[in-house]
């Protein structure tokens, strides 16, 4: 599987505001590594960014929302690992 190494800095870099974009399911999976049912369950519980309807039959996520979520998860994991040592 292709790995995506992104951070919030990739979307909003040092004074150069890059335009945010929408991410469809296939790319969301690569960024978050969550199965579709798990992501939808977390979304229902308010623990994952909400999808946006971009057409009658299509939804997507804002890239910045996903990257912020990924970064917040890695901070929690890091703090948990520090507490275990």
Order of helices and strands: HEEEHHEEH
Number of helices: 4
From the spread of the alpha carbons, the general shape counts as: globular
**Roughly how many Å apart are the termini?**
32 Å
In order across it, which strands form the biggest sheet?
A: 3-5-4
Note the beta-strand portion. 15-25%
Structural class: alpha+beta
Q: Count every beta strand, where a strand is a DSSP E run of 2 or more residues.
A: 5
Helix content: 40-55%
* Radius of gyration based on Cα positions: 14 Å
Largest sheet: 3 strands, antiparallel
Describe the secondary structure blueprint for this structure:
Layout: H1 8-11, E1 12-13, E2 16-17, E3 22-23, H2 25-32, H3 36-44, E4 52-55, E5 58-62, H4 63-84
Antiparallel strand pairs: 1-2, 3-5, 4-5
Structure description:
The protein is of the alpha+beta class and about 80 residues long. The chain has one domain. The chain has helices at about 10, 25-30, 35-45, 65-85; strands at about 10-15, 15, 20-25, 50-55, 60. The strands form 2 sheets. Strands 3-5-4 form a 3-stranded antiparallel sheet. It has a two-stranded antiparallel sheet with strand order 1-2. The chain is globular, with a radius of gyration of 14 Å. It starts with 7 loop residues before the first helix and ends with a helix.
């Amino acid at each position: 599987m292709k790995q995506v190494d992104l951070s919030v800095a990739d979307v909003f870099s040092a004074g150069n505001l890059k335009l945010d974009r929408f991410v469809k399911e296939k790319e969301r999976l690569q960024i978050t590594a969550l199965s579709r049912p798990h992501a939808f369950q977390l979304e229902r519980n308010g623990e994952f960014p909400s999808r946006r309807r971009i057409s009658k039959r299509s939804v997507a996520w804002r890239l910045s929302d996903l990257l912020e979520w990924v970064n917040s998860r890695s901070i929690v994991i890091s703090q948990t690992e520090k507490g275990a040592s």
